[in-house]
Amino acid sequence: MRTDCIIPSAGLSSLKRQKILGRFDAGAISSDGGVMLLREIDRQVVLLDRASALIPDPRDPELIEHDQRTLLAQRVLAIACGWEDLNDHQQLREDQVYQLATDRGIDPQSPLASPPTLCRLENRISAKTCMAINKLFAELYIESHKDAPPAQIILDFDATDDPVHGHQEGRFFHGYYDHYCYLPLYVFAGTQLLWAQLRPSGIDESRHAWAILAILVKRLRESWPQVKIVLRGDSGFCRWKMLRWCDNHGVDYIVGLAKNSRLLEAAGALSQTAKAQFEQTAEPQRIIGEVDYAAGTWQRWKQGQRRVIARIEHNDKGENPRFILTSLQGDPRMLYQQTYCQRGEMENRIKEQQMGLFADRTSCSRFTANCFRLLLSSLAYVLMETLRRTHLAGTELEKAQVPTLRLKLLKIGVLVQTSVRRIVLHFSSAFPLQKLVTSILIPSTA
After folding, report:
1. Strand extents, DSSP E, 258-305
2. pTM for the full model?
3. Helix, strand or coil for residue 24?
4. Is residue 121 classed exposed, middle or buried when 0-12, 13-18 and 19+ CB atoms within 10 A define those classes?
């Protein structure tokens, strides 16, 4: 009969005459020693303290064992290190490095919170709290530019699908993605996250975008009244009411415009030129120019006609036209290639969220709990992005994505030794990135 005193072991292939045996009995050793880097990053930006302060805690302080800030830190840091499932915390709560990283302190008799405790935290979050945490991201963006305010801010808006596989509240079948899903909306400024909102998929792609844009523009201009703000998005955000608001509030825009027969007719000359050049050279052709266009729904829009950039490609598969609506001035080719096409970088940031930080782990039955799970991944992203932007610039990892950062900087074996006076973390002497890690951690004075 198996008891707790029986230690699991595994026999491995022998080396010559020596038997090799593996046992989980090393004690205070962690596989995630690099999580202490994120603890230092959090102390610089004070992210988890401020996020916890935004979450109401109805519990009686005299009856609780785990304070809310520790619960939040435990969940966010585990996600950053690749432990997305609540069940992982059944063992992870005993990890002394995580006890240190959450600032709870090492106590073998008092581990971190159990999965049911963390689950209760997720299920008592309100929509108002989710809104407040999103506003915190904008504050962090502003604080990151204290030394030199940006001359221009390009706000990238984009939606993506978040597949669901159960009967979660708010799920709908989406015809474009061809499955049941949520439709989260993200806003980035460069690599920095400004907003992450989970939405049902039974809505238009631009739903809530107008209100979020207004909130962000108002806050940004409170700090920088003269800053130039540009809205950038695909054709799902080309809505005349939203763009009219931009005109009335001094916000520029460059957004995709869905093609139609009138646009194709207006770009006919460009299409003929691209076709003729392809027939002459047998090489793919790309022509970028301008056309005049005004949709019927724009009649209520001041100065109904707007600038449209047409990109016409022609190759052996035929013609591929694309149209961009913009209020920006400048060369059409430069605006298309160096301004609009750069929105593709935002898609990499969304992939980091979903594939690297499990933002699509929305398996709670309640919609608001799933909204909070998206924000937990977003908080983890902010820590990872701040680490990359502030400490890895100029290094081999300055453009590394989250999975690579996790593998090279967080998944570090460490032995924990404690005494009355100090706690020592013994990292491997063979670790390849020792200098990089020590440059991020606070130098020891002992």
Report:
1. 285-293
2. 0.90
3. coil
4. buried
